[in-house]
Amino acid sequence: MDSQLNEWPEPIVAVQSIAESGAALIPECYVKAIADRPAAPAGAAGKDLSIPVIDLGRLGGSAVECRATMRAIADACREWGFFQAVNHGVDADLVDEMVAVWREFFYLPMEEKKKLANSPQTYEGYGSRLGVEKGATLDWGDYFYLHLLPNCAKNFDKWPTKPASCRKITEEYGRQMANLCGTLMKVLSISLGLDVGFLQEKFGGDEIGTCMRINYYPKCPQPELTLGLSPHSDPGGLTVLLADHRVSGLQVRRGADWVTVNPIPGALIVNVGDQIQVLSNATYKSVDHRVVTNAAAERMSVAFFFNPKCDLPMEPARELVTQDRPPMYRPMTFNQYRLFIRKKGPMGKSHVDSLQAM
Ligand code: OGA
Ligand code: NI
User: Fold this and answer.
1) How many CB atoms lie under 10 A from the CB of residue 33?
2) Is 287 in the pocket of ligand 1 (CB under 6 A)?
3) Whole-prediction pTM value?
4) Is 260 helix (H, G, I), strand (E, B) or coil?
5) Contact at 8 Å (CB) between 177 and 270?
């Protein structure tokens, strides 16, 4: 393992503890360069745009409805890299319980949470920074990161024991999310003109990986100076985000603009990650997104990541490579790929772009 990843380069301060101290100014290390602040660029177009909303229940409808829905999903993944899924089949009570137990976790005393403090080796546990670059500008957010699959990567020692129901609820939520992603993988495979199981198989079949990051963005006294999460694309395959519908914060890149997502109550936000962009030879896009903070309300989100088996080389599917469309990326395993991210933290789309075949 890389020695750089043994420990954090600076002592970790939970953003929540800064926010709760009542400071009127944010510490210097959270102040972004002017070009990186939320107001710039002030995209006019961004105001009227929104990511597509897709009713997944229609996949189980008539053949015509099903085809139209598959087309809508594929179009969203090509054009936006994002959509909101309604009627997604995930148990609504479970979703509410998931939010409730994790809110309770973040409300535990700091000493309790710090017992599960994470390191950059695996990132599992309670953390407040991404990347190990000394002197980096930090994001205004804390998180809890955990692995669900494969089973050998699931380490209950690093999971909260309080609240007591956290484990069971999180595992069941993870199972339902993996099912949803399994369905979407089929839709995306068919829409590429490939066999229904194509993408899943390329991901390692039953040996896929799943993990979760529960994000907690405290109120921020100077939201115009910082970000809750810097621009990044998600490194894995697919992401399903559960976001608070009362507090917006997620923004998706659209050309030079940032389009704010206004979550529909009960909806889940789905986005394409870098590995699907690579496998699909850039047919589906893994799109930059970021989180803005606000002074009025804290915000929580649950990001579920559906990833390939970590030691398989990922490269554009041969079936999608033609004379006119040569392979866009060099092969790399997900293990190698996420090592970059663990070191550097969120850096827009520079990781996937660096794989571009010369
Ligand atoms: C992520 C992410 C967005 C949000 O965790 O990768 O993009 O709204 N989260 O918290
Ligand atoms: Ni993300």
Assistant:
1) 8
2) no
3) 0.96
4) strand
5) no
Ligand 1, atom nearest to 250 Cα: 8
Tokens 């546990």: give the residue: 125
Contacts of 185 (CB under 8 A, 6+ apart): 199, 200, 203, 237, 238, 306
CB atoms near residue 29 (< 10 Å): 13
Triad 186, 252, 150: Cα angle to 5°: 40
Question: Is the bond preceding residue 163 a cis peptide, omega within 30 degrees?
Answer: yes
Cα–ligand 1 centroid distance for 79 (angstroms)? 20
**How confident is residue 345, by pLDDT bands cut at 50, 70 and 90?**
confident
- One-letter amino acid at 299 equals R
Output the six-digit token pair for 355: 């794989």
DSSP state of 234: -
Looking at residue 32, the DSSP 8-state letter turns out to be P
Give the tens place of pLDDT for each residue, 282-341. Answer: 999 999 999 999 999 999 999 999 999 999 999 999 999 999 999 999 999 999 998 888
Predicted local distance difference test score (pLDDT) of residue 240: 98
Instruction: Report the alpha-carbon distance of residue 198 to residue 185 in Å, rounded.
Output: 8
Decide whether any atom of ligand 1 lies within 6 Å of the 289 Cβ. yes
Q: How far apart are the first and last CA of the chain?
A: 29
Question: How many Cα atoms sit within 13 Å of 206 on the Cβ side?
Answer: 1
Per-chain residues with Cβ under 5 A from ion ligand 2: 234
